[in-house]
Amino acid sequence: MDSAPMPTATRARTKVTAIPGDGIGPEVMRATQQVLAAAGAEVEWEEALAGAEAFRRGIAAGAPQETLDSIARTGVVLKGPLETPVGYGEKSANVALRKTFEMYGNVRPVRELPGIRTPFSGRGVDFVVVRENVEDVYAGIEHMQTPGVAQCLKLITEVGCERITRLAAAVAQAEGRRKVTVATKANIMKLTEGMLKRIGEQVLAEYPGLQHEHMIVDNCAHQMVIRPEQFDVTVMTNMNGDILSDLAAGLVGGLGVAPSANLGDEAAMFEAVHGSAPQIAGKGVANPTALLLSALMMLRHIGDFATARRIEHALYVTLEEGKDLTGDIAREGEGVPTAVYVERIIANLGRESGAVPEREYRPIALKRWPQITWYRAASTRELVGVDVFVESERDPRAISITLQAAAEGSAFDLTMIGSRGAQVWPDIGGHSFLVDHFRARFMFKEPPKGNGIAEITDLLQRIGRQHNWMHIEKLQRFDGADAFSKA
Amino acid sequence: MDSAPMPTATRARTKVTAIPGDGIGPEVMRATQQVLAAAGAEVEWEEALAGAEAFRRGIAAGAPQETLDSIARTGVVLKGPLETPVGYGEKSANVALRKTFEMYGNVRPVRELPGIRTPFSGRGVDFVVVRENVEDVYAGIEHMQTPGVAQCLKLITEVGCERITRLAAAVAQAEGRRKVTVATKANIMKLTEGMLKRIGEQVLAEYPGLQHEHMIVDNCAHQMVIRPEQFDVTVMTNMNGDILSDLAAGLVGGLGVAPSANLGDEAAMFEAVHGSAPQIAGKGVANPTALLLSALMMLRHIGDFATARRIEHALYVTLEEGKDLTGDIAREGEGVPTAVYVERIIANLGRESGAVPEREYRPIALKRWPQITWYRAASTRELVGVDVFVESERDPRAISITLQAAAEGSAFDLTMIGSRGAQVWPDIGGHSFLVDHFRARFMFKEPPKGNGIAEITDLLQRIGRQHNWMHIEKLQRFDGADAFSKA
After folding, report:
1. Who among A138, A190, A486 is closest to B188 (CB)?
2. Which end of chain B is flanked by fewer CB atoms within 10 Å, N or C?
3. What separation, in Å, do the N-terminal and C-terminal C-alpha atoms of chain B show?
């Protein structure tokens, strides 16, 4: 049960930054605001600019300072789709807003809607994908290693894993859900993906009301198609979550009806996941359902559970009856204009639908993270070697000879040469086809006396006489354990 | 139409390495071999060991030398599921076999089967996922950057992109397909994922009989659920392909009926994708369909199109009629033992099914890659700076002061500090929560005279007096373009 509505007189209106955005954005925003107003949502809108117009005005991040100021002030955003015009901007305005306000958690409810026919209709699909939103390969830190070999860094942090897991647990608690599935590729990436598995399991053990399980992420994608009913809340790193949340949206009608929230300590941004659909923009036929469902998440976020419930029931009644739907979801005919669909939802306010899952909503209890540079101390640290990535057109044996000669008289022994994660020297068979990018592993003959930098820079100069190196990684041990993969 | 069967007398028997594997592996292998023998496949099996038993014998890669020798001799493998017992092996035997023989292409047909009911039945889903198999984050090259920050390298090569795209084109041509969809995350990872987009589009333009398109990979996952009929052949990097191929298998009945091939220059390995199912091993009830479908791919690979066609029709007739199916796919009752299912398929040899897609198969024309260390030369190269990754618990402004002081008098200027891909110095707002891992970008004040190593090692020593650095990337320009991302 939602909590009972509070008398209007005692409720302050909550300020919310509204970013209509591009394409159909202004139309679906207006439609959503009309429904919220008719339902009596105590929201005061601050309209703000972001997207194509901002880029064209020369604002590199796609959002002017006034918009950032408004978000900093209100802490709550409802946002339409944003475009990055071709030729502008290194990153999208969406990514910029998420990063500026460290909205580290992306929450994507995946719930069957009445009247939206899919191959999974009637099975009661109802789960939430929680996706880490600021780390992983998504950071886009890339370096060409050689003219034909590109590298991107996948960075995962313990605190990032803890934050996203606690958010998943908070989402589960806020919606009375019982299980959290941590989905990772820990079997292949033991340190990065394995970190979410390890931290996720540790953190979730603190929530006795929640069951938790781990699932390999490719199996999770498979299971979402085979038996989506089994999921309740899932949590994933950024790139995996990107793919699986879009997959999941497809199970219940697609991006046109998929809401989302981006949550952080300083701000929460609610947005439709779909694009700006420029081909139908301005025609008054866009479907505002995704943004309206996002607005319901927003109303619950600001504590207005009763209004969210009123609108949710009216929307479900409208979808169930199937009259006056927009063209993309109409069950017969060509569909009606956005305005007629909105009128119908408003007319249905006060009606109750049996299709809305009975759920006791509470606010999402986000842990507040201190404004610091986070770190974890290690009780012991050792520097045991260095991986030097070299460019060479030669074969591994030839490379081993010059590298061993280079290391002669240095503090290091060459112990292994690898190519894309496979050992190619000492020879263990196979690998007749190679690329000009090799990792040479050098281990200290004996532990360095000081910080080891003199020894490493000496080695780099020796190697540099014969080989072009482009990338160095120290090999460390933390708390007595190797802090690097073997191969 | 398949080509007409050649008279047996003129056909040599092709040697194939059979690896029964673990759990239900021996049962499904025996079943598959029985069907092939009954259909007159001209195959001579060399049985070989890999998996749990090999690990227990102390063979770190999970496959003894005799097995590797057999594969090197035959060049063709049919393989059951392999286990890695807990506590053994850094990598699975599957991965080891793929890497040893550089089987760079994973081919996963996704085709609706008669009588296997799924939410997508009747829509004629029929496409192929081609996944790069040896590069990407799958290489598992990981380094802890600080005690709480893990890193994995995502490595993508031009030649790897070319090879996998040519394989996708060859698969399309071998099966008379018309379209190849290149699915990447090029919008976020311009150098790595963007490489597959760029090379893929270049290579596919050489095949006038094939249409090609690019799709963002998360949208591709969404489209596979929304409208899987649109796909013909898709091609992806390793991790994305891992997830999307398992998703796709779910559309047509799941891993229990999903065949696959791993292709390379030196060997081709055909295997079921499912696990070893130890809970039903030895009970004689396992479903051999996935391995049998894999064996059909193998028969076509060795040019025995007629036998493949005979078995495919018999299998489809069996599935359509629905009598004598194993428990996992039985439409009523508890299902029959493996042996009864196999007898039924054999009894149906010679019958024709209308459900088998009419398709003119040709051998997959794999380009043979030279046994070299591949490289691409750049016409010009410049070394313009270095990214130094430092560990620090301080805030970005404090770090910038010490780093600038360290660079004072060096060949470099500090131009930027980033945290997980976002600029945090000079300050552009936001980012109150940070981790102890920062990237400091140093640009040469003027182009270095020599190879720049003396200047870099000087900088590293200066920085090392105040900061712990653990990772270095040279900033290069190839052919006049920045070979690194801006942020």
Report:
1. A138
2. N
3. 54
The helix/strand/coil state of A410 is coil
Q: Is B170 exposed, middle or buried (0-12, 13-18, 19+ CB in 10 A)?
A: buried
Is A316 an annotated catalytic residue?
Answer: no
User: For strand A149-157 and strand B437-444, is the pairing parallel, antiparallel, or unpaired?
Assistant: unpaired
8 Å CB contact between A22 and A286: no
In sign, the C-alpha dihedral spanning A45, A50, A51, A56 is positive
Q: Which helix (H) or strand (E) holds A16?
A: strand A14-19
- Tell whether the torsion through CA atoms of A53, A56, A62 and A64 is positive or negative: negative
* Partners of B46 in beta bridges: B17
Give me the count of residues in chain B: 487
pTM: 0.95
B139 in Cβ contact with B237 (< 8 Å) = no
What is the rounded distance in angstroms from the CA atom of residue A200 to the CA atom of residue A160? 10
A143 to B473: CB separation less than 8 angstroms, yes or no: yes
Residue of B nearest to A156 (CA): B150
Interface of B with A in 61-80 (CB under 8 A): 61, 68
Does B395 touch chain A if contact means CB atoms closer than 8 Å? Answer: yes
Q: Is B409 on the interface with A (CB under 8 A)?
A: no
Per the CB < 8 A criterion, the answer to whether B232 and B226 are in contact is no
How confident is the model over A188-200, as pLDDT tens digits? Answer: 999 999 999 999 9
What is the four-CA torsion angle of A29, A34, A35, A41, rounded to 10 degrees? 100
In contact, A413 and A403? CB cutoff 8 Å:
no
The predicted pLDDT at position B313 comes to: 98
Tokens of B173: 């041509």
Report pLDDT for B127: 98
**Do the Cβ atoms of B475 and A143 come within 8 Å?**
yes
Choose from A352-361, A368-377, B233-242 the range with maximum mean pLDDT: B233-242
How does strand B259-263 pair with strand B268-272?
antiparallel
Mean pLDDT in order along chain B per 10 residues (487 residues) = 46 91 97 98 97 90 92 96 77 82 94 96 96 93 98 97 97 96 95 98 97 98 98 98 98 95 93 94 97 98 96 98 95 93 98 92 84 90 98 95 97 96 84 88 96 96 95 98 91
Chain A touched by B88 (CB under 8 Å) = no
Mean local confidence (pLDDT), A332-359: 95
SS3 assignment, position B172: helix
Query: What does DSSP assign to residue A452?
Result: S
